[in-house]
Design brief:
alpha+beta; Alpha-Beta Plaits
Length: about 100
Amino acid sequence: MIYSRVMARFAVPALSALLAMNGSAQSPPPLLQIVQERLNPDAEPVYGKIEEQLAALCARMNAPNRYLALASLTLPREVWWLNAYASTSPRSCTDESASAR
């Protein structure tokens, strides 16, 4: 029940922001991947550093997919990732390259 309230409250504005980042505000993406991560309190500093490094790497490599992260302000810490894809092909390619690391 709480997740539906969270999604109802944040998904529409977040999706609008994600679409604006992709430059395709006219129509929603055919595929929207939503990933939820719960963070251990001790892992937050390391998690943040890793995510900053990954964002810098994606920018250097001109990664084709944009994403939006929503982070909770209260405990337990959660991060929800919204990834928009034009089709399943780019997502599969991204998943395969991520699993190879």
